[in-house]
Amino acid sequence: MKRIALAAMLGLMALAPVQAQTVVKYLNIASIPDEVKLMTEAVAEYEAANPGVKVELPFLENEAFKAKLTTLLQSADAPDVFHSWGGGVFYEQAKAGVLRPIEGVLSQEAKDAQGTAGVAAFTAPDGHIYGIARDVAEVVLWYNKALFTQAGVDPESLKTWDGFLAAVQKFKDAGITPLAMGGKDKWPAHFWWSKLVVRLAGQDGFNAAARGEGDGFAGEDFVKAGQFFLQLAQLDPWQEGFQAATYGDASGYFGDGKAAMHLMGDWDYGAMKDNSATKQGIPDDQLGILPFPTIDGGKGDPTDTLGGLSGYLFSKNASDDAVKFIEWYNAKPVQSRFANAGYYIPIVNGAADGMTNPFKVLVAQDINKAHWHALFFDQALGPAVGGVVNDVSADLAANAISAEDAALQVKEAVDDAAN
């Protein structure tokens, strides 16, 4: 009888459904090994506490990510969660129906932790919340103190555009490459045009142009931005072969001490080390941050910054488990680890409180006091217009287009997108 009972029990066990494991694919752009290690450790921690969930971390390099994401989101291989810079690109994705609204799953605690700005950044014009905010970033002018000393350049002299151009020439006269540039990727060049627009047109001018009002992006301030950019480009300030250099190449070039400056996001602190030949980069005591030069007569506020408010979006087939994982991953206990390591500045309340990296602290202060924190133009203006901004910026850096043509092409892209 015992044998019969045991056999019956085993039979019932065989018929019982095995607990299904939910797979969450988080497509990311993190390339620094130590940052990826923190991500992997966090995932292992979550999986241990949630045995029914398996989290995968597929990676795509920045440019490949932008190029392939649209196709991926329309395929069976769409990630459940993916990195987003927000802005017009995110709005287009929501409009195309490839995203999942998450307000029905997202907890109030997670909303409160992001703050009003974080929730607003990932709320589409249709009123739905499609993502979770992760961090804020600023584009800054990194500089090598040793090379400034070698060339006899006073950092204070770069506060104005004329002083900046004079310093660039002084570096060239000393046989030092003034600026690193990843021209092949194009988006690094757009930081120059965008920062000049921020200085010249300001928030009101940019918003009016984005709405297509008046002359739009073909207006005087935007043409002037191109003219100032060409003033710089005509000094031949970039490293040799910059048009074939990727962002990683330029970051490493700066990190190896071969260029005096690099206009790049605060993330370059880690990237320039990782991309350098020694993996050490410029020592902290020889590294500095300069504000972007001011321009006489510019309509922008001197405190205005350019950067991002990045986060995570969920594809249309993402599970509730994907949302719950990101809620956990984006909360203070995990995000504090990334802040303390200096990889980025988390937006979640309290996560950046223990941040000790002096450069990240300075960036956080810049953003907090900014009159306008402009979102990266290639993201804020949507994919079609953003692509044109990147194209004309790369052409301006190469002194291959007029300021008038560059501005007109952006205006035409805005007009086309509106029709």
Automatic annotation (TrEMBL):
Family affiliation: Belongs to the bacterial solute-binding protein 1 family.
Pfam families: SBP_bac_1
Residues passing through the membrane, by range: none
Protein name as annotated: ABC transporter substrate-binding protein
Taxonomic superkingdom: Bacteria
Native organism: Devosia insulae DS-56
Signal peptide: 1-20
InterPro entries: Bact_solute-bd_prot1, SBP
Gene Ontology CC: one annotated term: periplasmic space
